[in-house]
């Protein structure tokens, strides 16, 4: 049984890492105020996609509070169950079995609505653009940016899901070679190296690798030398481009992904 579970969000990667408090609560009067007390933690799960958690848990995790206690909807028991299942996505029955609770005004006020909306949109994208469907969405974004594209049929693609070039016929630079991975697990170095090889094969100027589940920690650092040739998009960058280009997308894509803009008062921290 976990005594205290500590979800820690990494917004740039749109993932959670989970730990639990281990050991006693030591005190040291010699350290800098106010850090007299601390708790050791043991990490039990890292880079867990936000989409693996139920919407009700994400709503609670989205609190603006740095430290809070989440008691609603059997949160701790459900996280323990996810841990036992190797952090796979919650089944649909898990939130349904949780105790129903009404969100209070205080809880709603402490919720990051922007993050909650992104989670809902990410879940919709994941549900409606699985597998090769995500390639179709990325192609739509590139088209809205002015590229002429070729999308490989589903199946073996020869190392590139999309070829994109500037100009009416796609003959002008920059010429892009694009690979898209829709799985939730982070991508390692090998698939990215294959894209670099495909860029030479297709005579592309630059490459774009889109990984819905993000990249393993070493990939970004090891590919710094490819900064002027290669870009890596995680879920975060893909959603940012989707929001920026949404009004220019084809009607068919917008029909599959119906979104609307909502204005709301910024929090005090955001206005500073």
What is the count of DSSP helices, taking H or I runs of 4+ residues?
11
| Main pleated-sheet profile | 5 strands, mixed
Q: Which word captures the global form?
A: globular
C-alpha Rg, in Å?
A: 22 Å
Distance between the termini: 41 Å
Structural class: alpha/beta
Strand order of the largest sheet: 4-5-6-7-8
Multimeric state = single chain
Poorly predicted tracts of residues: 99-103
Number of strands: 8
Order of helices and strands: EEEHHHHHHEEEHEHEHHH
Beta-strand residue percentage: 15-25%
In round numbers, the mean pLDDT is: 83
Please bin the fraction of helical residues: 25-40%
Walk me through what this model shows.
- It is a single chain.
- By secondary structure, this protein is of the alpha/beta class.
- The protein has eleven helices and eight strands.
- The chain has helices at 55-61, 75-84, 93-97, 105-109, 113-128, 132-144, 189-201, 217-222, 235-245, 251-256, 268-271, and strands at residues 5-10, 15-22, 40-49, 148-151, 162-166, 172-181, 206-211, 230-233.
- The strands form two sheets. A five-stranded mixed sheet has the order 4-5-6-7-8, sandwiched between helices. Strands 1-2-3 form a three-stranded antiparallel sheet, covered by helices on one side.
- Helix 8 (217-222) links the parallel strand 7 and strand 8.
- It is globular and about 70 Å long.
- The two termini are 41 Å apart.
- The model is unreliable at 99-103 (pLDDT under 50).
């Amino acid at each position: 049984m976990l005594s205290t579970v500590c979800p820690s969000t990494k917004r740039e990667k749109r993932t959670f890492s989970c730990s639990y408090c281990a050991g006693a609560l030591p005190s040291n009067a010699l350290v800098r105020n106010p850090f007299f007390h601390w708790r050791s933690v043991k990490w039990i799960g890292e880079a867990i996609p936000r989409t693996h958690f139920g919407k009700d848990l994400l709503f609670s995790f989205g609190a603006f509070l740095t430290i809070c206690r989440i008691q609603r909807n059997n949160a701790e028991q459900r996280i323990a169950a996810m841990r036992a299942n190797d952090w796979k996505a919650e089944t649909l029955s898990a939130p349904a079995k949780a105790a129903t609770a009404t969100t209070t005004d205080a809880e709603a006020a402490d919720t990051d609505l922007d993050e909650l909306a992104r989670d809902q949109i990410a879940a919709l994208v994941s549900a409606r653009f699985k597998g090769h469907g995500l390639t179709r969405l990325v192609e739509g974004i590139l088209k809205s940016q002015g590229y002429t594209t070729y999308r490989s049929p589903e199946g073996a693609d020869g190392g590139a899901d999309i070829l994109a070039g500037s100009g009416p016929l796609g003959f002008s630079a920059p010429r892009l070679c694009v690979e898209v991975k829709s799985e939730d697990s982070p991508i390692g170095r090998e698939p990215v190296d294959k894209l670099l090889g495909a860029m030479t094969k297709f005579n592309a100027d630059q490459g774009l690798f889109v990984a819905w589940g993000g990249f393993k920690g070493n990939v970004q650092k090891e590919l710094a030398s490819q900064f002027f040739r290669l870009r890596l998009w995680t879920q975060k960058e893909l959603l940012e481009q989707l929001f920026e280009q949404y009004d220019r997308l084809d009607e068919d894509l917008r029909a599959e992904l119906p979104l609307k803009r909502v204005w709301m008062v910024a929090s005090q921290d955001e206005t500073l």
